[in-house]
């Protein structure tokens, strides 16, 4: 039976009461339940302090980097929900990220252009475009997940990859938004209610608050009866079905929830870059998100944020010191995998097991 996700509590399925109690395998690290929460809080504090330092030091380049870490950390964390906890290895997560970008970006484009699409005007109000990005991501997640989850293993991976590329080429064909070249959207979705987040530092803090809310919400999800069933499906789906649980529905809901959060991250990303193009929806972005999750630590949630920080900081350093950026990043990630095969978060949990 497969190991439970790193840093999680032993999962005990409590509902429905009429069914037998299911206890998926305990984490191999033997980690105290308080350690994942402690590390999560520490990572968020470090990110907040780094953002404050960049703001006080007037380092706009660093503010942009930390905002990118927050955005991609949220996307990677949503992917970890289905990979680390649900055992659903997907190469289609960028489709939801890209859809979120196009949902918020298209609304901002039509607001700036004072035009309409299907008779509907645009808006730069994030309190409208971000929830719509989440809804569109969830709906696409239900569609893709509903079909892909009928397959297993490598066929599931290939199905999600195929859907991802279909979505990418759809965006690529939208000439109204610049097609493959994309289009600039200044001040896109940077109005959050009465708050005008045109300043990069202000936008960082808005995104950071969203990340904290997502971390708290997902921690409640994975510790809920729903989360225990999802982890039980990861450990032994056949056993869960034998106990009477509709595993397909649980996994589909988790898939849609992850897609929704990826859509939110995509909407935040277009607000950060102020540029709308199909690039974020390409399957290679799915691969990068998966690398972030693995490097940070599967099944730890905060590992997605850690992995995003590791990968994006490595990219920043590589650009400054070498022309062979991808080679440098590949070598550095290889070292990370060899030193911490369960990811950075897994390495920390292992060193503090049985505390």
Main sheet?
A: 2 strands, antiparallel
Radius of gyration equals 20 Å
As laid out across the biggest beta sheet, the strand order is: 1-2
The helix fraction, in percent, is 55-70%
For this structure, the CATH topology is: ABC transporter involved in vitamin B12 uptake, BtuC
Amount of beta strand: under 5%
Name of the top-level CATH class = Mainly Alpha
Number of helices: 12
Number of strands: 6
- Write down the domain tally: 1
Low-confidence stretches: 1-32
CATH architecture: Orthogonal Bundle
Sketch the topology as an H/E string, one letter per element: HHHEEHHEEEHHHEHHHH
Silhouette? globular
Mean pLDDT: 85
SS-derived structural category: mainly alpha
- The rounded distance between the terminal residues' Cα atoms is 25 Å
Explain the layout of strands and helices.
Layout: H1 34-56, H2 60-85, H3 93-113, E1 116-117, E2 120-121, H4 126-148, H5 153-172, E3 183-184, E4 191-192, E5 195-196, H6 200-223, H7 225-242, H8 247-273, E6 275-276, H9 283-296, H10 302-321, H11 325-339, H12 343-351
Antiparallel strand pairs: 1-2, 3-6, 4-5
Helix pairs in contact: 1-2, 1-6, 2-6, 2-8, 2-9, 2-10, 3-4, 3-5, 3-8, 4-5, 4-8, 6-7, 7-8, 9-10, 9-12, 10-11, 10-12
Can you walk me through this structure?
- There is one protein chain.
- With about 350 residues, this protein is mainly α.
- The protein has one domain (about 35-350): ABC transporter involved in vitamin B12 uptake, BtuC.
- The protein is about 70% helix and about 5% strand.
- The protein is built from twelve helices and six strands.
- It has helices at about 35-55, 60-85, 95-115, 125-150, 155-170, 200-225, 225-240, 245-275, 285-295, 300-320, 325-340, 345-350; strands at about 115, 120, 185, 190, 195, 275.
- The strands form three sheets. The chain has a two-stranded antiparallel ribbon. A two-stranded antiparallel ribbon has the order 3-6. A two-stranded antiparallel ribbon has the order 4-5.
- A hairpin with a 2-residue loop joins β4 and β5.
């Amino acid at each position: 039976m497969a190991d439970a996700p790193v840093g999680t509590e032993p999962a005990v399925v409590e509902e429905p009461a009429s069914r037998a109690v299911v206890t998926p395998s305990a984490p191999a690290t033997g980690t105290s339940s308080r350690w994942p929460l402690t590390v999560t809080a520490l990572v968020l504090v470090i990110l907040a302090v780094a953002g404050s330092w960049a703001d006080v030091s007037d380092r706009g380049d660093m503010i942009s980097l930390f905002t990118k870490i927050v955005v991609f950390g949220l996307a990677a964390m949503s992917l970890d929900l289905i990979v680390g906890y649900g055992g659903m290895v997907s190469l289609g997560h960028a489709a939801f990220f890209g859809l979120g970008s196009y949902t918020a970006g298209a609304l901002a484009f039509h607001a700036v252009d004072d035009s309409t699409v299907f008779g509907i005007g645009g808006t730069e109000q994030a309190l409208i475009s971000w929830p719509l990005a989440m809804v569109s991501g969830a709906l696409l997640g239900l569609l893709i997940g509903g079909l892909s989850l009928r397959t297993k293993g490598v066929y599931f991976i290939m199905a999600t990859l195929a859907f991802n590329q279909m979505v990418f080429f759809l965006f690529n064909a939208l000439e109204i938004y610049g097609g493959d070249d994309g289009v600039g959207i200044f001040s896109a979705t940077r109005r959050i209610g009465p708050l005008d987040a045109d300043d990069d530092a202000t936008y960082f803090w808005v995104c950071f608050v969203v990340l904290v809310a997502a971390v708290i919400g997902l921690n409640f999800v994975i510790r809920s009866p729903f989360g225990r069933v999802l982890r039980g499906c990861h450990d032994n789906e056949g056993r869960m079905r034998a106990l009477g649980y509709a595993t397909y529905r649980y996994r589909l809901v988790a898939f849609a929830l992850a897609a929704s959060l990826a859509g939110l991250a995509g909407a935040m990303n277009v607000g950060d870059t102020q540029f709308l193009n199909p690039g974020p929806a390409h399957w290679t972005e799915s691969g990068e998100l998966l690398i972030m999750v693995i490097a940070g630590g599967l099944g730890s949630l905060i590992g997605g944020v850690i992995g995003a920080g590791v990968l994006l900081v490595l990219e920043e350093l590589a650009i400054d010191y070498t022309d062979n950026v991808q080679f440098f990043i590949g070598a550095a990630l290889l070292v990370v995998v060899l030193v911490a095969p369960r990811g950075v978060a897994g390495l920390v949990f292992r060193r503090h097991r049985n505390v």
